[in-house]
Design brief:
The protein contains one helix and six strands. The chain has 89 residues and is mostly beta strands. The longest helix is centred in the first third of the chain and has 4 residues, at 28-31. The chain starts with 7 loop residues before the first strand and ends in a 7-residue tail after the last strand.
Amino acid sequence: MAYQSKDLSVLAYANGFTLWHYTTADVAATVDTSGYFNAASTMLRLGDIIVANVDTAGALKGGMFLVSANSGGVVDVNDMTQIGSADTR
C-alpha cells in the first residue's frame, strides 16, 4: 500500500508543533521508510509526532513516529515506538 492523505489528521497544534494521527494497513517498517510521507511534506515539520495505528488488516499495532527529516520534499520519520507490546491477561 502507500500513504493515503485521507488517513492523516491533526489531533492538536500548539507553538509550531503538530500532533497527528495516521491509520494504515501498512506495517510500521513500511511507514518509517524515507519518502513514505512525501505527499504531506508541506504539512509535516521536524519534531512533529504521528500517533499511528499500523497493520490494521493484520496484527494491529499502535505507536508513535517522530518526523526526523523534511528537506526538498523528502520526509523521513524515525522507527515506530510501539505502545504496548503484548496482552498477557
